[in-house]
Amino acid sequence: MSNQLNSYLRTELEGFDEVVLVAHSMGGLIAKDHILNYISGEGPRPIGYVSMAVPHKGSIGALLLSPSANVNAKEMQPLSEYSDTLNTEWYERKDELPKCVYLIATHDECVPEVSSLPYKVKTADKFTLDHDHTSICKPGSKKDLS
Question: How many whole angstroms separate alpha carbon 111 and alpha carbon 57?
Answer without folding.
Answer: 9
